[in-house]
Amino acid sequence: MDYLQSYEPEFRLAVAVTVLGGMALWELIGPRRRQAIGRGARWPSNLAIVVLDTLLVRLVFPSSAVGLALLAQTQGWGLFNAIAVPAWFAVAGSVVLLDLIIYFQHVLFHAVPALWRLHRMHHADLEFDVTTGLRFHPLEIFISMLIKFAVIAALGAPASAVLLFEVLLNATSMFNHGNVRIPLSLDRMLRWLVVTPDMHRVHHSVARHETNSNFGFNLPWWDRLFGTYRAQPARGHAAMTIGIDQFRDVRELRLDRMLTQPFREDAGRYPIGRDRGRR
Questions:
Q1: 214, 92 in Cβ contact below 8 A?
Q2: Is residue 274 part of a domain?
Q3: Are 23 and 178 in contact, with CB atoms under 8 Å apart?
Q4: 196: helix, coil or strand?
Q5: pTM of the full structure
Q6: Considering only Cβ atoms within 10 Å of each terminal Cβ, which end of the chain, N or C, has fewer?
Q7: By CB neighbour count within 10 A (0-12 exposed, 13-18 middle, 19+ buried), where does 247 fall?
Q8: Is residue 223 part of a domain?
Q9: Do residues 103 and 97 make contact, with C-beta atoms less than 8 angstroms apart?
């Protein structure tokens, strides 16, 4: 299993670059929405934040998620290392449970004002495209990694399942943030299997009740199961406004401004449970 750890960075990078390039081309050929703010104003900062996030993970965490899974297997940590189940069940169960935890984590970042201040940088993008799916504050990435490591150790998730989940999460995040047009009949079928761009775009609406819906990143089932699913934005995909009330100046798309957003202004009206009844 050491080869998983040895070639993990190269494999994940190759998949990420391929998906990013494919989605960027799709956006050019078949865009869903007309964008008022071009790629030149947004992409440099959105891509730069990915570099910063990657450096943070490499500097702060001595092991990757796959490396932790291998260590847990060696030490016998976690559920799937303590009970005898078929390998396929451990892999499939780990991927599904990790995705469920990501759903709850996402809800948590919308519910706790201090965490929302970090997460809102992702929502403060004034357009919605493939690079929005890469745009997360380094402090949010740090907290997310701590949660993910704890869950991997508790589950005893197989290293292959962790690698598969990481690749799927990154790929589907870029896919479901894509400014791409999918036929409505196909979208209706796909969103029973995976979060589609039209499904997730609702989550990036400036309207508070729409922002606090459709939390899934990969599997779409959790929103339906827990009552957070919203099929379409009230104003339609072409007319809806992307972003949040705060940080609507184009200058906020600069990297330095993005990094300081959690520390400027208050948490606003978006955290779940705040100002109940307001839309």
A1: no
A2: no
A3: yes
A4: coil
A5: 0.94
A6: C
A7: buried
A8: yes
A9: no
Element (H, E) at 53: helix 39-60
Structural domain contains residue 268: no
Give the residue from 210, 171, 172 showing the smallest Cα distance to 191: 172
Divide the 279 residues of the chain into consecutive groups of 10 and give the mean pLDDT of each group. Answer: 69 94 98 96 98 93 90 95 95 98 98 98 98 97 97 96 96 98 97 97 98 96 98 97 97 98 96 68
**φ/ψ of residue 112, rounded to 5:** -95, 115
What whole-number distance in Å separates Cα of residue 80 and Cα of residue 177? 33
C-alpha 87/C-alpha 100 separation (Å) is 20
CA–CA distance, 140 with 52 (Å, rounded to integer): 12
**Phi and psi (nearest 5°) for 157?**
-65, 135
Residue type at 279 in one-letter notation: R
Domain total in the chain: 1
Beta bridge partners of 242: 205
Residue 115, domain member (yes or no): yes
Do the Cβ atoms of 129 and 27 come closer than 8 Å? Answer: yes
Is the Cβ–Cβ distance between 113 and 274 less than 8 Å? yes
Q: Distance between CA 177 and CA 71 in Å, rounded?
A: 34
**Which residue range is the domain that position 220 belongs to?**
2-263
Strand locations in 58-145 (E): none
